[in-house]
Amino acid sequence: MGSGLRAALDRGLLQIEEDLLRMREMIDRALSKSLKSLVDRDTALAHEVIDEDKSINNLRYKIEEACLALIATQQPTASDLRMIMAIMSVVADLERMGDYAAGISKTVLRMGDEPLLKPLIDIPKMVDLARTMLRGSIQALLDHDVPRAREIASRDDEMDHLYQAIFDELVEIMARKPESVHRATYLLWCAHNLERIGDRVTNIAERVVFVSTGDFKDLNIKEEGIGGLN
Question: DSSP class of residue 120?
Fold first, then answer.
């Protein structure tokens, strides 16, 4: 590859990586706001998260278009092409994470003035873990850090266990108090959205392995019998 093409490719990749970090931060804020909207029953903040999801979607398309333009015009090498293809996959996962955050806020709107069924303990833990995993997975991708990616993927077990604890507790409450089913379902939806974010982060970790080695490795082998929604 000539020096001019190499420089143009490097500039293009740098801009894409900067946009990827910006998308990560947008989703991080969406998760934080969605939790706050749930805890405080703040419908204005819930609407804000839902509205801002459009910007996350638009940034995904911008990044995908930039990736396709690099492939078409800059003749990326095999390693660069793996990175570009990985980023195209990653932004799809990030966009879905934005949808999950918006889904929590939509649940807040559905709840209206109904009080929370119980104090929130494990759902905030899931949000904190999701944000930590999200930030770490994107940095691992940019650094081509396979050990860190594997460590982040392993934390999805922690996310699953938190979700299972919420699921079991809510099912037990519904069994004792059938009138609570409606309110319990709201919390189940929120917890399920967060559990799915853990799966999406694991997908990103798998792309880190792909970029560095050229191999696809399944880092998300689930336990049999994990309860709940799929």
Answer: -
pLDDT tens digits, one per residue of 127-153: 999 999 999 999 999 999 999 999 999
pLDDT at 113: 83
Name the CATH topology of 3-213: Methane Monooxygenase Hydroxylase; Chain G, domain 1 (1.20.58)
Q: Could you give the C-alpha distances from 122 to 35, 65, 151, 158, in angstroms and in order?
A: 12, 38, 22, 11
Q: Is the pLDDT assigned to residue 162 strictly greater than 70? A: yes
Residue 178 to residues 83, 103, 113, 182, 184: CA-CA distances in angstroms?
Answer: 51, 25, 20, 9, 10
Assign 78 to helix, strand or coil.
Answer: helix
Residue 42: φ, ψ to 5°:
-95, 95
User: pLDDT tens digit string along 170-198?
Assistant: 999 999 998 889 889 999 999 999 999 99
